[in-house]
Amino acid sequence: MMLDILTAPFMKEMTKTTSNLYRLGWDERNGGNISYLLNEEELAPYLDLNSVRRVVPMNFDASALAGCYFIVTGSGKYFKNVIDAPALNLGIIRIAKDGRAYELLWGFEDGGLATSELPTHLMNHTKRLSVDPTHRVIIHCHATHLIAMTFTHDLDEVEFTRTLWQMCTECLVVFPEGVGIIPWMVPGTDSIGKATAEKMADMRIVLWPHHGIFGAGPTMDDTFGLIETAEKGAEVYTAVCSQGGIKQTITDRQLQDLADAFQVTPRAGVLHV
Ligand code: 13P
Ligand code: ZN
């Protein structure tokens, strides 16, 4: 007998995270998407893995992830609705052997599809797994203050990173590799996926100017926490600017001392010490 999949730990993580992201205002309407790499042992008690409901072609090559399972949010689905109707708003997919399709094993019960940002998610997973075998989660959301900062702040990665590090002492410790920034591009495309994944080789946060943020990590908590911390830095920056601007800040020397104390290596070229 199969266990009720709605009680699975990964399902609870998905419903809780989508609710939290909605509550924080970072996923209005259908904004944002999540994909979470699952292993066969986690799924087997809840799902017949031989029962494929639909095969959906993909127009890019995901063969590096052939046979991998993901729980993903649906395209056009609202994060606020996930908790009340997981089987409509979420799907469990397996990447087909040739990497050119995904097999739907559960969910998207109204005929829905995986997020339109699936190319970016899968390309990011491939890249992060190549540098971190513990990697599992990609979250995209429309974090308000980070988006705002992409209008008011220089889009140079080094400058943007230094400003975020200065805004909260925690930032450098949580993302010492800094943030990646790509140019504005049309979402949902292979091109934006490739550009984002290139950044993901060295960084777990990539900003899409005037759109949102992608975060990567080994757990849902870690990935959510990463985005939260960067967004907090951006929120403080917004308050600082509205209070009249920076009068004093954490110096580069102090940031380096912080890095030394927490044994993290700051991205090269950001601190001048
Ligand atoms: P989806 O509804 O297809 O996931 O798209 C939302 C989004 O944020 C696009 O960038
Ligand atoms: Zn988006």
From TrEMBL:
Pfam families documented for this protein: Aldolase_II (PF00596)
Cofactor binding description: Binds 1 zinc ion per subunit.
Residue span(s) of domain Class II aldolase/adducin N-terminal: 12-238
Enzyme Commission number(s) of this protein: 4.1.2.19
Keywords: Cytoplasm, Lyase, Metal-binding, Rhamnose metabolism, Zinc
Cofactor: Zn(2+)
Claim: Metal-binding is one of the keywords in the record: yes
Binding-site residues for Zn(2+), renumbered to this chain: H140, H142, H211
Keyword Metal-binding: yes
Localization (cell): Cytoplasm
Top-level taxon of origin: Bacteria
Active site: E117
Entry similarity comment: Belongs to the aldolase class II family. RhaD subfamily.
Record-linked NCBIfam families: PRK03634.1, rhamnu_1P_ald
Function description: Catalyzes the reversible cleavage of L-rhamnulose-1-phosphate to dihydroxyacetone phosphate (DHAP) and L-lactaldehyde.
Protein name, as recorded: Rhamnulose-1-phosphate aldolase
Annotated organism of origin: Bacillus swezeyi
Phylogenetic classification of the source organism: Bacteria, Bacillati, Bacillota, Bacilli, Bacillales
Protein encoded by which gene: rhaD
